[in-house]
Structures are given as structure tokens and as C-alpha cells.
Amino acid sequence: LGLEIVPVSDLSAALRASDMVVTCTPARQWYVGRADIRAGTFIAAIGADHHDKQEIEPALLAASTVVVDSLEQCATIGDLHHALCAGAMTREAVHASLGQIAAGTRPGRRHSDETIVFDSTGTALQDVAAAAIAYEAAVAGGHGLTVDLSH
User: Fold this and answer.
1) 80: left (phi over 0), alpha (psi -120 to 50) or beta
2) Cα 26 from Cα 137, distance rounded (Å)
3) CA 82, CA 30: separation in Å to the nearest integer?
4) 17 pairs with which residues across the strands?
5) Which tens digit of pLDDT belongs to each residue from 15-50?
6) How far does Cα 3 stand from its chain's mean position?
7) What's the pLDDT band for 9 if we cut at 50, 70, 90?
8) d(Cα 149, Cα 86) in Å, to the nearest integer?
9) Whole-prediction pTM value?
10) Distance in angstroms (rounded) separating the CA atoms of residues 41 and 136
11) Could you tell me which residues are beta bridge partners of residue 96?
């Protein structure tokens, strides 16, 4: 994919230069703001998995197309929770769930300058799917070992 991970001394500049941003921190205060993101950026915000964790500025969510893994869960503990509490947006303003997009009942990206925030608080089904993909890749690559736990 041509991805490169490099240390960053200026977070705002790095965010403005990025097409895709993935956040996965235990932050208690947002650090990715609307002014830091250019049009067309995709943001996967996966760190806010508790009601007092936050990574994304509520104004950025309000100005973006918001996709959630679980609307109820994100409205309770995700970055969406903070946007709702701040009055920056409503549940009805959420574009879709990931399941709706995967099923084709809601569209994904509609135009190239659409900023999308995927607010993911984590669901067991996603964890199982990721584990299955990792397992299949390990088996196909001849990695890992089998452990018999029946004794």
C-alpha cells in the first residue's frame, strides 16, 4: 500500500497532510479538530470506548459524514456521545452504520471531498471477524501452531 509510519513533531500538520487518520488512544480530551482535517479525509476513530474517552472534536463530527459501528453504543460511549452532549449533532444526523453500508442499504462515500468519520466503540462481532481473518492469513502463510486444550 505504500504506507509509512514516521514520528510526528507537528500533529496538526501531519493531520492536514493525511488522506486517512486512525486514532486509537486513551485520550480524555479531543485532539483531532475540524481545523486539522482537509476535505475528503477518512478518519477511523476507535479509541473512545468509554464515556469519558474522546479523540474527535464535536464540531468535526458535526461537519462530517458520520458512520458508526453501533449507534446505541456510540451514542453512549463513543466520540458521537460527546458530540451529542455538546449539542453539535443529533442521532438522526448519523449517516449510517457500518453494517448498513456493508449490506448496501446505505451508500458509502458519495463524493471525493466528503470527510468521513467512522466512530467505532468496538463490537464482539467485529473482533471475531478480525480474528478469523488473522487466523486464516496465519494458516495460509504457515505461521503459528496448534494447541490441544482438551487435556
Assistant:
1) alpha
2) 29
3) 10
4) none
5) 998 999 999 899 999 999 999 999 999 999 999 989
6) 18
7) confident
8) 50
9) 0.80
10) 31
11) 67
For residues 53, 60, 108 and 70, what is the CA-based torsion angle, rounded to 10 degrees? 30
Spatial distance between the Cα atoms of 6 and 79, rounded to a whole number of angstroms? 26
- Neighbour count for residue 74 (Cβ, 10 Å): 27
Q: DSSP readout, the chain?
A: --------S-HHHHHHT-SEEEE----SS--B-GGG--TT-EEEE----STT---B-HHHHHTSEEEES-HHHHHHHSHHHHHHHTTS--GGG--EEHHHHHHTSS-S--STT--EEEE----HHHHHHHHHHHHHHHHHTT-S-------
Q: What is the pLDDT of residue 87?
A: 98
Joined together, the cell numbers standing for residue 92 give 438522526
Determine contact, residues 121/77, Cβ cutoff 8 Å: yes
User: What's at 1, amino acid-wise?
Assistant: L
Our CA angle for 70, 72, 77, nearest 5°, is 90
For 48-64, b/e burial (b = at least 16 CB within 10 A) is beeeebbbbbbbbbbbb
Q: Which residue, among 99, 43, 47, has the nearest Cα to 71 in the 3D structure?
A: 99
